[in-house]
């Protein structure tokens, strides 16, 4: 059981890493694609946002589907779908066709995080989940870090179309490995997980999506994660172009100095998961352990604003590394929340999809807004960076004051405990 649970986390880590390579390859190849297709920054901003439209709006359906099908089927289905969309991107010759491929990519990748969150909730106890979550969530930083030198190398040698084809093959290999290695937790020897109490058919019917939205905590999770991703998705989308256009980085510079923020974020995410679980094991309440990490990390990540006011490369990279690392530190606790508050194991992916829907609206905002501001200000990234930093502060306040006590949501119509009443939940 102990060995197999880490195999599951490793597979989730690889899936998330591949997903981020496939979503970030457009950003790394953006200068070459702009020249080849003859498009400007506003159109590129539109292309970068295309992924987020379907990725955001498919989160809730994807979460529901994951809970219905189970992660064993849902996750490889998602990886296979987005790998095909990535491969199709290599054949486009117009902005409309590329936009369509990015829409397809978003549909496929919508199932990734809800599936991984459900797998962790199935295989790990609450005091283990944040660190396990930090492992698979670090795939986002690994994928972002690898995408810069990997895609830059392929683009510079074989062209941007080859970059899409070769990165699509990673997903195909992963799907084959998944069906060879995957096991259900109940089939693993030495299963030490607590058995969730069975619900009556009547109680199960009372837990609808509408009933989940009655809890203030869920709205706080949605707002906090939206603010988180206003900063996080700047790193995933416009960050390479920012270094090239605003600070004169070459593709070689992107593969060295440009990797430092993403490389810093990898151990920072693991540290965030370890600290969150460690505080809980040492007697802190689950609420205090998770909130300490989320609020502190969000406040620290607001340092991204400093990068708008410096031309010193080392100070710039230092601020960006601290900001991205702090976001990763926060992310481990954020993705533990669905398992912490789900009323039943069958609602973990649904809640994960709901909070991820809200968070990825930020992807649409930051990509299109940045492109618009670049056009309006003739290439200045100052306003988008200030927006990202301010959102980090707002997100910290949401997790501190809007998110309440972290415990499973009570059944609709059931009497909430004192903690639930103090939180402001309604039944």
The whole-angstrom Rg is 21 Å
Strand tally: 0
Looking at CATH, which topology would you report?
Answer: Growth Hormone, Chain: A
The unreliable regions are 416-427
> Helical element count?
21
Tell me which CATH architecture applies here. Answer: Up-down Bundle
> CATH superfamily membership, which one?
MFS general substrate transporter like domains
**How would you describe the shape?**
globular
Structurally, how many domains make up the residues? 1
Mean pLDDT, as a whole number?
Answer: 86
Strand content: under 5%
Order of helices and strands: HHHHHHHHHHHHHHHHHHHHH
| Helix/strand class | mainly alpha
Notes on the protein architecture:
Helix 1 (2-28) runs parallel beside helix 5 (71-89), helix 1 packs antiparallel against helix 9 (160-181) and helix 15 (260-281) packs parallel to helix 17 (313-334). The model is unreliable at 416-427 (pLDDT under 50). The protein is an all-alpha fold and 427 residues long. It has one domain: MFS general substrate transporter like domains (Growth Hormone, Chain: A, Up-down Bundle). It has 21 helices and no strands. The protein has helices spanning 2-28, 30-37, 41-57, 59-69, 71-89, 95-109, 112-123, 126-158, 160-181, 201-206, 209-212, 216-236, 239-247, 251-254, 260-281, 286-301, 313-334, 337-341, 348-377, 382-402, 418-423. Helices cover 77% and strands 0% of the residues. The radius of gyration is 21 Å and the shape is globular.
List keywords for this structure.
427 residues, mainly alpha, Growth Hormone, Chain: A, 21 helices, globular
